[in-house]
Design a protein that fits this description.
Number of strands: 17
Helix content: 25-40%
CATH architecture of the largest domain: Distorted Sandwich
Number of helices: 14
Shape: elongated
Strand order of the largest sheet: 6-7-8-9-17-13-12-11-15
Distance between the termini: 70 Å
CATH class of the largest domain: Mainly Beta
CATH topology of the largest domain: Beta-galactosidase, Chain A, domain 5
Number of domains: 2
Length: 499
């Protein structure tokens, strides 16, 4: 058993590691309480990231507020929400619950969004514009609030971190000019231009600042630290008419705070210009379809591109959301929601890139499926984290077939790709199909017309190889071509009998 002096020394070292860069509070008050977490709604109205590999942070918008922020990968959400609280005459209103919401697309050639929220009676209008720093892991919000402010009025920022894909293991603390939270190797740092007038870090639903504001119109107890739980943070804005918030991330508190401070120092306008220029550069070589529909085309192209992870190129998640977000699903980091990779969805996105005129992204998607996701037996997991670790335990045969179809569409018929990837997947289909343990909605097993159609398309792709052999390009093995063609024909006859 560790002695009490040793435990005290260990805890002191931990505090020094995380708190050394910051000035000590004059009084420490540990917050009590805590409750279960819940991921925000999956109905997103905005999604953005810089079109650079250096900035590994993504944001989502819904209900008038900032919802999930992902870092350092697209399968690691770190926030539940960030919103403002307007307090007048000892009565406080939150953006999410008490105000009307509007969202605007700032630029037709960038993932740049603006949220406009109006307080009850439209006495105040909150306008927030978003961008991420192309060079750092920082999300910036430029905020302006119109309306009259009396001396007793106040504006607070309310931040609910959910670090490392879970909410019940975070530790939050404050210093003179920052709200910081950490869990494992992820740290967030929230700062504001002009600084905070007061701050508090506590637990959701029991000791948090929003409860105090709702009950009394002010922060009655300022907690300096809340450890290993579902924490929330509040900070009062000194200059509420116009200010900029910077939410930075890093592996340590020092890194996160450095990112947020440098981004804030550079300035929102300059960063926003670089952010938009990056997306304009991506759109420039893509297809042009005419003025009437070009804006919608651009938005679709940018959203698909933004779904690609930056640590594992080609890993494109299904959606930056968690539809089943309550209770244990939000408390622990084992739930992926839709921020995972399905080879079927990835195939659909890759073919969309081909239609857009972005062949490079489609090639990265195929390389990811073959080099990261594919198993030694030729199959693909039900879904996976972006690093390839399987999540679901099921087998969906259409997901084994679609990569073969994409390889055909991209002309990947070289011998190495055939032997290492195409042949094992095709043989897996022959050995285990046409029945599937899960159809595409992951609810039924058996003979699915949609799955059989995908299997047929995957197996008969070797027709192209035979044509190449007739032209003298010996890239496919004859017996495997015959096997694939024969099995594909059998599937066609089976499907005809079933209709």
């Amino acid at each position: 058993m560790i002695s009490k002096p040793a435990r005290v020394l260990a805890l002191s070292c931990i505090c020094l590691l995380h708190c050394a860069p910051f000035r000590a509070q004059s009084q420490s008050l540990i917050a009590p309480g805590g409750q279960d977490a819940r991921w925000p709604s999956a109905a997103k109205v905005g999604f953005g990231t810089a079109n650079t590999a250096a900035s590994k942070v993504w944001f989502t918008l819904n209900g008038g507020v900032l919802t999930e922020v992902f870092y350092p990968r697209l399968d690691v959400p770190n926030t539940q929400s960030l919103q403002l609280i307007l307090c007048k005459a000892n009565k406080c209103f939150t953006e999410a619950d008490d105000m009307t919401h509007e969202v605007q697309v700032v630029s037709q050639t960038a993932l740049s969004f603006r949220q406009i929220n109006k307080s009850p009676g439209s006495t105040h209008t909150i306008t927030k514009t978003y961008a991420t720093d192309p060079l750092r892991h920082t999300v910036l919000l430029q905020v302006s609030i119109s309306g009259r402010f009396d001396d007793a009025d106040a504006v607070y920022v309310y931040f609910d971190p959910s670090l490392n894909n879970s909410s019940m293991h975070d530790t939050a603390f404050t210093n003179a000019d920052a709200l910081l939270a950490f869990e494992a190797n992820v740290t967030s740092a929230l700062i504001v231009s002009g600084g905070f007038a007061e701050t508090s870090s506590s637990y959701l639903g029991t000791s948090d600042g929003l409860l105090q504001l709702k009950q009394t119109g002010r922060i009655t107890t300022r907690y300096t630290r809340a450890s290993k739980g579902n924490v929330v943070q509040v900070g009062r804005i000194r200059q509420p008419a116009s200010f900029t918030l910077a939410l930075g991330f890093g592996t340590t508190a020092r890194q996160a705070l450095r990112n947020s401070r440098r981004s804030l120092k550079e300035g929102f306008t300059q960063i926003k210009n670089k952010y938009e220029a990056g997306w304009q550069e991506y759109l420039r070589p893509l297809r042009k379809i005419g003025e009437k529909d070009q804006a919608q085309f651009n938005m679709a192209a940018m959203v698909l591109k933004a779904l690609e992870d930056k640590t594992y190129p080609g890993a494109m998640i299904a959606s930056p959301s968690v539809p089943w977000g309550g209770g244990p699903n939000a408390n622990n980091p084992t739930i992926s929601g839709y921020h995972a990779v399905w080879s079927r969805d990835l195939y659909q996105v890759a073919t969309a890139f081909l239609a857009l005129g972005d062949r490079h992204s489609a090639v990265r998607a195929l390389d990811y499926m073959f080099q990261v996701q594919q198993r030694p037996d030729g199959s693909f997991p039900q879904n996976s984290w972006v690093d390839g670790r399987p999540i679901g335990g099921g087998i969906q045969m259409d997901q084994v077939a679609f990569p073969l179809v994409l390889a055909y569409q991209l002309g990947r018929t070289d011998r190495r790709t055939w032997r290492r990837h195409i042949k094992p997947a095709a043989q897996y289909l022959v050995r285990n199909g046409p029945v599937t343990k899960q159809e595409r909605w992951e609810e039924e097993s058996g003979f699915s017309p949609a799955t059989i159609a995908a299997e047929m398309a995957g197996l008969v792709r070797c027709t192209h190889c035979r044509a190449q052999r007739r032209e003298g390009r010996r890239r496919c093995l004859p017996k495997n071509c015959r096997l694939m063609g024969k099995t594909g024909g059998q599937l066609v006859r089976y499907l005809n009998r079933s209709i």
